[in-house]
Amino acid sequence: MTEFKKIDEFVQKHNILPRDCLYHTWRALKDSSGKETGKLRVLAWKDNIARSEYICPECTKYGYQETPWKRPFSVKCQCGFRITVPKMKAEFKKEQKAKK
Hints:
By secondary structure, the chain is of the alpha+beta class. The protein has two helices and six strands.
C-alpha cells in the first residue's frame, strides 16, 4: 500500500534501527467475515509512543494514531471497529485450532 508513509518517514527522519524499537510489526487484518481486507503497521520507539498506521478491515479507510505503548495493544478506527494486535504465538495457536 502506498498510503503507509508516515512511519517510513518517521524512521528515516530519526534514523531508527531495529535495535532502537521496543516493538515493530506489520500484519494483515481480517474483517468480521474472516477475509483479509486490512493492514496494520505498529512501531513503538524508545519514547514509549506507539505509532500505528492501518487500513481498517471493516470500512477500508486509512488511519494513523499515536498512543502510549502498552500490551495488549489495540487501536480504534473512526468507524468504531477495534483493531487488536495479539501476540504472534497466540495468533498461531488460534489458527491451528481453527484448522482442526
